[in-house]
Design a protein that fits this description.
6 strands, globular, disordered N terminus, about 170 residues
Amino acid sequence: MSKKVVKGKEAPKSQAKKPEVEIKLTEDEIKDCKEAFDLFDLDSSGTIDPKEVQAALNSLGRDQSPTIFRLLAGIEELGAEIDFDSFLGHINDRLGNRESKEGVQRILDLFDAEGTGNITLKALTRVARELGESMTEEELAHALERISSLGKPELTFEDFYKVMTKKVYG
């Protein structure tokens, strides 16, 4: 077979295809990931450097955004040049499958900075602030109480699993 020549140049060799990963994120979550990626892509090259991500995260302060730190942990293992698909795959892997208990546990772990095994009002309030949510602590407490099996503003893993798999609506 002959190689296709365009204006005196060889056609580019096809790049190795990345393995297909099933993305379990919603369209809104993918959009949010793209916005986050674009914040890290300072030169608009379509790629980000893990060192730049770490520098940006350090400027946020670990105490201010522990959920984001845990979500992006290990991103440096993707290599020196991370494209959006790789970034999205990393976030998808960190969040896990929301239909499996293991995946839901990964998400709960992002909330659970105190290591209680539950989602406390303090943890939910912290994550809400990190994400820019404007609900008051009282509103968050009421939401937790409505779905908690403990009768207080705290969710067990089982409570959280039911919510994540839409088996309870409060």
